[in-house]
């Protein structure tokens, strides 16, 4: 039995979006921006060259990443808002549509198939741990992953693009992640500023542009829209307040640099809401877990399974009996053949990290071990609101 035909049917009817390098995407954008900032050895496809031309050659480029800003939120903006009025295109996020793989694709200009970060919870076979990869902690104990033998190079095998840029490079990120393992890796160790308020972060960008002595690249990361959707939902007052904050600070940034810099804004993914009845939490003694070598990893909407030897058929039967109406279950070979994780075959390390099977949610569903906190908003899957992100150029 194969679930591939069910997925292909979902792509055909538009309920899910098939990952494809043939549609302009955030990897194309990352490569376009890096090329404009001096990385001359990049292979740019037609879409990346078009994006670079649309951005243009400017002395200063400010790249703004608004976590969780899907096109469904942009479409709700007033037509003359700074975000909607300056949106030039809809891009597709990489799959899984989640922060860890998406930010790593933007940092490296590579697809998850190559950079080998499949999700928030990434199993690292060599270290024999599952890491909550961006905070760089062991998933269950929350201890620093380095205490469990995981090195930065072992976790992130693909170098970030920053080292290949010739421009002055500055990162402006929330204070609590400034100087973190992932921030240092994804910036290639570039200078950084941690902000305690978004106003302070925007002012830091404005000051950097005003005092720059040479062409520069500045990265500004904004997490508040994503956080609000996770905690309160897509259409909540909290999400609307977060959008208002982003909108006002983007206006402030545009006014503060007064045409001296090009602003390029996008997102890593969008979000959907999942009602409690469709959130499946696996207890620690769930019989299905006994069939696995390690706990399910990757994402609640794209769980990855490492199955014990000789138990594949039994696992397939149990999973499909419980979740077959809500998830397609693919072998790692099927997922590789469909090129869901990028246009190239899965790297050996990505294949090891994904394991034997991946589940792909067919609708607004998730399955996971107990979550760190209750959530309404989720992402990682292939529903349009998860995949479609904006390209704002000011």
Please tell me about this protein's structure:
- By secondary structure, this protein is of the alpha/beta class.
- The chain has two domains: 4-16 and 276-373, Gyrase A, domain 2, CATH 3.30.1360; 26-102 and 159-273 and 383-393, Alkaline Phosphatase, subunit A (3-Layer(aba) Sandwich), CATH 3.40.720.10.
- The protein has helices spanning 4-13, 26-36, 46-55, 71-74, 82-85, 99-108, 112-115, 152-155, 181-186, 198-211, 224-232, 237-257, 312-323, 332-337, 348-354, 384-387; strands spanning 60-66, 87-92, 121-124, 129-132, 137-138, 168-174, 192-195, 216-222, 262-266, 272-273, 279-281, 297-299, 302-305, 327-331, 357-361, 366-368, 377-378, 388-393.
- The strands form five sheets. The protein has a seven-stranded mixed beta sheet. It has a four-stranded antiparallel beta sheet with strand order 12-13-15-14, sandwiched between helices. The protein has a three-stranded antiparallel beta sheet with strand order 3-4-5.
- Strand 6 (168-174), helix 9 and strand 7 form a beta-alpha-beta unit.
- The longest helix has 21 residues, at 237-257.
- The protein starts with a helix and ends with a strand.
